[in-house]
Amino acid sequence: MNIGFIGLGDMGQLIVPRLIEAGHTVTGWxxxxxxxxxxxxxxxxxxGTPREVAAQSExxxxxxxxxxxxxxxxxxxxxxxxxxxxxxxxIDMSTILPxxxxxxxxxxxxxxxxxxxxxxxxxxxxVKAGQASIMIGGDKAAFDKVTPVLLAIGPxxxxxxxxxMACQMKIAINLLLMxxxxxxxxxxxxxxxxxxxxxxxxxxxxxxxxxSPVLGYRGPFVIxxxxxxxxxxxxxxQQKDMTLALTLGRTLGSPVPLAAAAxxxxxxxxxLGIDANDFVVAHRVYRKLGxxx
Length: 293
Prior knowledge:
By secondary structure, the protein is α/β, with parallel strands linked by helices. The protein is built from 13 helices and nine strands. Helix 4 runs parallel beside helix 5, helix 8 runs parallel beside helix 13 and helix 11 runs antiparallel to helix 12.
């Protein structure tokens, strides 16, 4: 199929090649063309605007920073809505508030077009390994139509419900993920304070019933010298998702006390000047509070 892709950051850099390898023709756009060059070298075509990309595509994906960015690329003067054909489908994979996604979906519906929210759950590690999962909110017939393309990105594709529901589920999952990783740092620091070596503590947790896929590839980062130079998700990016959880909790009247606590640990990372690291660096906050650093 002819596929458009808007937003060629870390995730786009991994998703586009998977679509090309599956035999699709991909036309991409990014605010800065420099990020597109490696993908162009792999066979991606370049579109001058989101509108131009959409005009050449049957399905258009976007994955950008936040709700404002989604609205800009989708509904702006040269946005996707002005170029997408009537039988095309727009899928936004960004992590944004359900209300923002529903606003964009309603604008597309008013124009006689279909928009799905389709956030992807997984780090660059899982996307590269072909193990990411995709959740879809919106029209079920449109979901059925795009499922074969989604399966080229990741093997686990789920229709969550009506418009915005996939965004809501993604925020809930990211809340769980963040609390889990931060609690891991707390547990390691506690074991260390009592005299257990850090490598031994990490190894024991990863062999225990508390182990999980995210701890499997992130846990070793807390060992000295193992923190990646290029974070999978730095403090700023992950804290953005916690603020979404806090906002959603307030909107729905659903308590999220662990999200609030996790957010404060991210603030502490900022205060210590370690926020450019992967957010598993929260382990250092606990060491500092416990007098170990």
